[in-house]
Specification:
11 strands; binds nicotinamide-adenine-dinucleotide; about 40% helix; six-stranded parallel beta sheet
Amino acid sequence: MILLNGKSLANEIKDNLKEEISSYHRKIGLAVVLVGEDQASHLYVSMKKKATEYVGMESISLQFPEDISEEKLISEIEKLNTNSKVDGILVQLPLPNHIDSNKILEIVSPEKDVDGFHPYNVGGVLSGLDTFAPCTPVGMVELLDKYEIDIQGKNVVVVGASNIVGKPIASLLLNRNATVEICHIYTENLKEHTLKADILVVAVGKANLITADMVKEGVVILDVGINKVGNKIVGDVDFDAVSKKASYITPVPGGVGPMTIAMLLKNTLKSAKRRDR
Ligand code: NAD
């Protein structure tokens, strides 16, 4: 079994970006919009800020109170859309209940949508265009490529059908000629599906959802789940037992997670280059 080391690959990517950005002819800016006091969101935003500054980009943080009106938030994002110093815009989710997240994601200019959540970019991913794809799934594809794991013709089973992970990873792997199946909470007899997987992606948020009897020998596992069990962070896969059958597996933490921020920075550089064309 080989561990898919996302932490070291993410560091390698960030160092390469840092070098490229050091000779870029202008400062590249990534704006992060944070609403409210959600602790996890604050943690993610501070990690993103740290990584943005590490690679030499400017981190532009906008923090708003929980009770900001939807109208005011829209006008702030519109300002970022036209601000020439801003190459990428990220709206940290979740937003408070009184704000329609879909509406907000549509306001972000598709050209600066480095998170790949605007419907224009969602459609672009589905059509196989070179567009901004969501960072977590792109990071997973980079990991597979780094370890030279074949995708074409393989049976991929994706468990979890969210807009930010499950659906886009299914599209990206379909675009690479895999045979893709998507499972979700209403899927009957999950095991019947997961047993067919050459590559199994699990993005649900339930510790130990995938047990050793549910996978075949030699499977490649991408475990996206983040679950707190006691004071430990674990994925959705019963790592100890499943890793004995897998050929490759992502650890949690240190697998898929670290790749997300690296891909965000990569998308931001891509946006800057496009804007400078
Ligand atoms: P979500 O919560 O939006 O959706 C969960 C999906 O799992 C749904 O499609 C649901 O139908 C499915 N599901 C729920 N219970 C199931 C079951 N028993 N069997 C099969 N399917 C089931 O998911 P999300 O936002 O994609 O997040 C999933 C997990 O991935 C979470 O633990 C989250 O923290 C983690 N995550 C990690 C990263 C990262 O590492 N960078 C990024 C995003 C999400």
